[in-house]
Amino acid sequence: MAEKRSGFFVKRAGPLALLQDAGRFGVRQLGVTQGGPVDLHAWAWANQLVGNAWGAAALEITFGGLQLVAEQDLTVAVAGADLSATLDDSPLPLWRTASVRKGQRLAFGSPANGLRAYLAVAGGFAAEPVLGSVACVAREGLGGFDGRGSRLAEGDSLPVWKTSGSGRETREAPDNERPDYRATAQLALLPGAQVGAFTGRSLYVAFNSEWRVDDRADRMGIRLTGPTLRCRIESLISEGISLGAIQVPPDGQPIALLNDRQTIGGYPRLGNLTPLAASRLAQCMPGQVVTLKAVAIEHALDEHRRFLRRFG
C-alpha cells in the first residue's frame, strides 16, 4: 500500500486552488459531474515532467495568490499559465522539473499569460478517493484533500505519496507544447446534436466570426459573446451533456460547458469542443478573442489519440 508523507504547508491559500486527478467517471447517472483538470494538456505535462503516471493528482491554481512552504525536499513541475511563480522570491522556470528544498517558499502571483497553472509533485499529492476519484468539485462537496470538496485554506498540510525514484532527473517540455495563451485561440468543434436546427445565417456567423470570452466563466462553463445564434427548436427534452458541449440558450449567446458542468441540459447544442479545445478555452482571460473551427470526428479522434499516446 502506498505511503503518505508530508509535502507542503499552505501559508496563503489564494482565491482558488483545487486538487484534481483525471476526473470522476461512471457516476453521471447519479447526477455527479466529472471534475478533473479543466486544462487537460497542462495537467498531463506537469505530471509527466515529474515522472507521475496518468491520473496522478496535481494542484490546479486559478488566478494565483497561493503560497506554499515545503515540509521536505521535493521535486515539482509547474505547467500551464504563467502566474509569476517564484521559489524563495526567484522566478521558477515553467514546463520543467525543479527541486524544492525543505523550508523553501513556492509562491504564485498574478496571471501574466493564461489563467490556470498546474503544480505536480513527484509521487503525486495524496488523498483518499471518493466515488473513484480525488477530483475536487466544491459545488458537490466531493473530493479534495478532505474528501468533502473543500478549497485549500491557510494552515492546511498537503501530503504527497512516497515515491521510490530519486526524482533528480531534469525534464523539460518541448517549445511546441507550450501555448501562448494570449494568442487568439482557434477552437476545434464537432458539429452535432441539434446543429441542423440552427438557421443558415447562424451557422455562417458561428464559424466566421470572432467570439469574446465573457466574465461569466468558471469550472462549470464559459459564456461566449458575439453574434446572436438562432435555433428553430423551441423546446427540447433534457439530455446528457458531455465535456465541451456548446449550448445555446434563448439569448443566442453560446455557453461552452466544462468539467464541473451539470449532467443534463435542455438547450440546443451547436456541437462539441474537442477535449484539447476545451482545455485551450479554459486558459482564456475575460475579453479574450476566440474563433470556432468545424472539424470532422476522424480528425478529432486522431488528435486525441496522439495526445494520449504521448502520456502512455
From TrEMBL:
Keyword Zinc: no
GO molecular function, one term: ATP binding
Bias (Basic and acidic residues) ranges: 168-178
Region (Disordered), start-end ranges: 156-178
Keywords: ATP-binding, Hydrolase, Nucleotide-binding
Domain Carboxyltransferase: 29-311
Keyword Cell division: no
Lineage: superkingdom: Bacteria
NCBIfam families, A to Z: urea_amlyse_rel
Protein's name in the database: Allophanate hydrolase
Source species of the chain: Halomonas urumqiensis
